[in-house]
Structure prediction request, 373 residues.
Amino acid sequence: MPFSAIVASLPQRVHVIGTGLIGTSIALVLARRGVELTLADASPTGAALAADLSGGRVSTPASPDLVVVATPPDVTAEVIATALADFPSAVVTDVASVKAVIRAELTRGGVEGLDRYVGGHPMAGRERSGAIAARGDLFEGRPWVVTVGPETSRAAVSLVKGVAEAAGSVVAILSPQEHDEAVAAVSHVPQIAASLVAARLRDLPESAVALSGQGVRDVTRIAASDPRLWTQILAGNAPAVATVLRDVASDLERVVAALESLGPQPSGDVVAPGARATLAGVIQEGNHGHDRIPGKHGAAPMRYAKIIVLIPDTPGQLGRLFNDVGQAGINLEELVLEHALGAQVGRLELSVMPAVAAELETVLTARGWRLHS
Prediction:
């Protein structure tokens, strides 16, 4: 029977080691389901706060069904090895965002009980960290990757799937190597790209930074991440990240060469042929890649009609707008709010199904909303 067909089983006694954002959010999920919950952390204050928030106990249990290791990536393998030894009947999982290096370290160390270890990576997070930032709905609708090796037991996978599904996540079963190659492209390189773009803003004059619109906000949103944590993540997945970045660097070199050939030319020089085609091709390739990103609820991507509403920056305006849309019986698929430079007004981009766009424009105009064409 393939691992993907295994039926999930919710453990009844869970011990969480590491009470930061992810560990405490998992604790909140399990407490809501009535699981007997114990917590541990290198910081007594952090553990006590997580216990207050979740209702768990700061304690070392005798025989948990599952141990969740939610520590920084550079110590995860060590903590997993200790947990496998300390709790010989428990399944052990982790939440680190790198998987192959952890399994390799456990294997090199001759750690026993690897049939009870199941790698895990809930693909969720926030810009804020620590127990106080934890949320019980953090994982809802998010992928939760479960990684398995040749010795992994199906009973162990069942318990980890039980936690992931209780959190509202969609479980994906991968090998450690498949996981690391995937997250290099969809998570780790985007973090580097966001940081590099945001770094260009550091020395700009205030008058230039003030022009920042939704584009730069979207691209740089994750640039506020923790440098120490991300150094550990990138170091743990260095080969896969480097492979993707080499391809990105090659594309950037083509773009730079094309742009330089289009700049002011010395008298008599001719622009190199194909420069504009290179730029158009890069943008078009990006279109194709963007179209592959899963859409709402993980369905195939959908192109929505977009309506931009100008909203006064005063209390109650968003509520009034949402009420008007709801009374029209129209469902909003996505929305993005951007504040206009030097004006007490916001631009709210509403995404709706194309078939209802004209109706929504008519309704909003009739109710006094200003639309941006």
About this structure: The chain has three domains: 3-174, 175-263+281-293, 305-372. The CA atoms of residues 69 and 76 lie 7 Å apart. The mean pLDDT is 91.
